[in-house]
């Protein structure tokens, strides 16, 4: 994983095989397809696994019972969008997500980290989509003919 949040390099923090295990479980339960890599279900799981890893290392949710967030696929993709779009200084949407769904309290620093993490993980799907589209267009030799492509909606905003 090559995610960065300010001066924190998650490669240095995340040392277990959780993301690999999650992908193995995910691909064994369904046929592994390129679309699954950018699916919302897996993106939510990536974020949840990072949070669980940092919780195990004693970085997040100190002294709190985290059993609800440790359940596989419990972190809905909609949470990523809500966390990413929370514009308030207190990050009240992130407070409500962790309080209501996981019975966890988060400090302001943790909430800021979660928003940055949601932004990083959320960029994965549009970038992989763009790679797929570029590969198809290149294979069909449309680029050589001078064709121009475009995207709309949230894909172009990422």
Q: Identify the overall geometry.
A: elongated
| Level-2 CATH architecture of the largest domain | 3-Layer(aba) Sandwich
Number of domains: 2
Q: Which structural class do the helices and strands define?
A: mainly alpha
**CATH C-level name of the largest domain:** Alpha Beta
Outline the biggest β-sheet: 2 strands, antiparallel
Strand arrangement in the largest pleated sheet: 1-2
Work out the strand percent.
under 5%
Rg, Cα atoms, Å: 18 Å
In which range does the helix fraction lie? 55-70%
From the 3D structure, determine the CATH topology of the largest domain.
Hexokinase, domain 1
- Number of helical segments with 4 or more residues: 9
> What is the residue-mean pLDDT, rounded to a whole number?
75
Q: Determine the N-to-C terminus distance.
A: 19 Å
The parts where pLDDT drops under 50 for at least 5 residues are 1-15, 154-158
Q: How many beta-strand runs?
A: 2
SSE order, one letter for each helix or strand: EEHHHHHHHHH
Describe it.
By secondary structure, the protein is mainly α. Helix 2 packs antiparallel against helix 4 (40-56), helix 4 packs across helix 5 and helix 4 runs antiparallel to helix 7. The chain has a two-stranded antiparallel sheet with strand order 1-2. It has two domains: 4-122, Hexokinase, domain 1, CATH 3.40.367; 124-158, no CATH class. The radius of gyration is 18 Å and the shape is elongated. The two termini are 19 Å apart. The chain has nine helices and two strands, in the order ββααααααααα. The longest helix has 17 residues, at 40-56. It has helices at residues 10-13, 18-29, 34-37, 40-56, 77-85, 92-102, 108-122, 124-139, 154-157, and strands at 4-5, 8-9.
